[in-house]
Design brief:
The protein is mostly beta strands. The protein folds into two domains: 213 residues, Jelly Rolls, CATH 2.60.120.10; 93 residues, Jelly Rolls (Sandwich), CATH 2.60.120.10. 10% of the residues lie in helices and 36% in strands.
């Protein structure tokens, strides 16, 4: 295999709270369905329906990412670790919240220790678009007890116990496992998460027909003082018509935003680890050189997510003016080992 940027067929997920704004990110949406999620890069266990991304470009077109990793793990993953199920360790999505998402929580570390069938799920939202006044719900107010929260679930007043946070385009919000949360109406986000499907709903805004998981959720939700926030990842750097802004760094992934103000050329650097690009605006063209007569060029229009294999070398990207993208990386196993 000669490494080149891999692009995937979006896996569209109809949701009761979804809409049609993902068309603005280049997605071809069915007219009759409200689409809430576009799974851009997914490698979940086989038992989960439509949970594995299919490559759409180059010599590997038509094959799943899971198959390709199984055959070319070192070239794709480099020093990065796979999941216990031998899958890619991130799930990447776009979400369109026409209505509020359910109030929910993902398993905490304590819950997972007691329930091995559950999986941790930490995620981040990067706001792609937000209507005026839009909010996310992130955490429970510090003075609310578990007993009060449970009682308010019964009375339908639980939203008053949540911390509502006004958001605007470009912001990044981290939601570690155990954080009770909901994406508010009028927001489109890029979601970067660890690849778990374990979600416990506690409130669904009066909608019927979807299961709630109150007892499980109460065993996971963080109550009391806010959980410790990740350290600020660093300051923006601007040079040669481009700006790089670190957004978030956790033990699971790091996110930075790259912005081109003019035509820009930059090398694609992997440092021996896979890198994910999400094009939020504009267009990029990436050329992987395998000798002058054997190069592979990949077009990345708005809304495209690409995986840069760890073994990718001699690769250059050309960004059109006003292009912005997210660059998502995995932690190096060497972090913390070198003084």
């Amino acid at each position: 295999m000669k490494p080149y940027p891999l692009v995937f067929k979006p896996i569209l997920k109809p949701k009761v709270w979804g809409g049609h704004r993902l068309a603005q990110l280049g997605k071809s949406l069915p007219a009759e369905a409200a689409i809430g999620e576009s799974w851009e890069l997914a490698d979940l266990p086989q038992a989960i329906p439509d949970g594995r991304s299919v490559i759409t470009n180059g010599p590997l077109a038509g094959r799943t990412l899971h198959e390709v990793i199984g055959e070319h793990e070192q070239q794709i993953m480099g020093a990065a670790a796979l999941t216990d199920e031998r899958g890619f360790p991130l799930l990447i999505k776009f979400l369109d919240a026409r209505e509020n998402l359910s109030v929910q929580v993902h398993p905490s570390e304590d819950y997972v220790r007691q329930h091995p069938q559950a999986h941790l799920k930490s995620e981040a939202w990067v706001v792609v678009a937000a209507e005026p006044g839009a909010v996310i719900y992130r955490g429970v107010k510090p003075d609310v007890t578990a007993e009060q929260f449970a009682a308010h679930i019964e009375t339908g007043d639980v939203v008053d116990d949540l911390i509502a946070v006004p958001v605007k385009t470009g912001e990044c919000w981290y939601l570690p496992s155990g954080t009770c949360h909901a994406l508010g109406a009028g927001i489109v986000v890029a979601e970067i998460q660890t690849p778990s499907d374990t979600t416990f709903r506690v409130f669904d805004w009066g909608r019927t027909g979807r299961e709630l998981h109150v007892s499980q959720a109460l065993g996971c939700i963080h109550f009391g003082a806010p959980a410790e926030e990740p350290e600020p990842p660093g300051l923006p750097v601007q040079a040669a018509g481009m700006k790089t802004t670190p957004l978030l760094k956790t033990g699971h992934f790091a996110i930075e935003r790259l912005e081109a103000f003019t035509d820009a050329v930059l090398p694609v650097v992997t440092s021996g680890l896979p890198v994910v690009w999400m094009i939020l605006n504009g267009r990029a063209q990436v050329a992987a050189s395998h000798g002058s007569s054997d190069s592979i060029e990949v077009d990345l229009p708005i809304g495209t997510t690409a995986l840069m294999p760890a073994a990718l070398e001699d690769t250059v990207a050309r960004l059109a003016p006003e292009t912005s993208l997210l660059r998502i990386t995995l932690p190096s196993p060497m972090e913390g080992l070198i003084a």
